[in-house]
Amino acid sequence: MDLEFQPNRKIIKIWFIGWFILLVFFYLIPIIPVLYFGELLAALLASIFILPWFILAVIWIPLYYKTLNYYIKNDHIRIEGGVWWRRIKTIPFRMITDIKAMQGPLARVFGIGYLNIQTAGMGAQNVAEGVLRGLSDYKEKQTEILKRVREYSPKGEIKTTVEVPLKSEEKLLKEMLNELKEIRKKIT
């Protein structure tokens, strides 16, 4: 059973709130003293450099939301998104080692959450290989993905093998050992 879905639209509000907080801290609070002391030119220059980034964010956020698509297929998860550079990430279930369900303070207010998907290749870096953002049913999606991961996990015992060196390799190893013994004698 394949699932195809998009993030909940509430994530747009969270992103806008985040940008508004940045606007307040990096533009409005610093510009108030400048305006108070009558430095209109400084305020205008600050506005010219800072406000276009926030205007760009207001345009970019809805566009980015429209590009986000998530797919849970038979043997993998696919995450698509990107306004200027389109990215498609495929994560096979057999590679998934952990799925963290997360819900920050704003996400909790809006009733949505995130799923951070970690794989064996990225586990040492503690960075999510893929993130499913803005899910209203994130716990159910986590359960569904974990169920599919279990289907692809190895069954039974882990088998180990011991490689026996070939005759030529064994001869070479003995020669190396003898050489090391001779070097040790000369050093001591």
Task: Please sum up the structure shown.
The protein is α+β, with helices and mostly antiparallel strands. Helices cover 52% and strands 21% of the residues.
Structure description:
This protein is α+β, with helices and mostly antiparallel strands. It has a single domain (1-154), classed as Roll (PH-domain like), CATH 2.30.29. The protein contains 5 helices and 7 strands, in the order E-H-H-E-E-E-E-H-E-E-H-H. It has helices at 10-36, 40-67, 105-110, 138-152, 167-187, and strands at 3-5, 69-72, 76-81, 87-92, 96-102, 113-119, 130-135. The strands form 2 sheets. It has a 4-stranded antiparallel β-sheet. A hairpin with a 3-residue loop joins strand 2 and strand 3 (76-81). Helix 1 (10-36) packs antiparallel against helix 2 (40-67). The longest helix has 28 residues, at 40-67. It is flat, with a radius of gyration of 28 Å. The N and C termini lie far apart (70 Å). 12% of the residues are buried. Mean pLDDT is 85; it is low at 156-162.
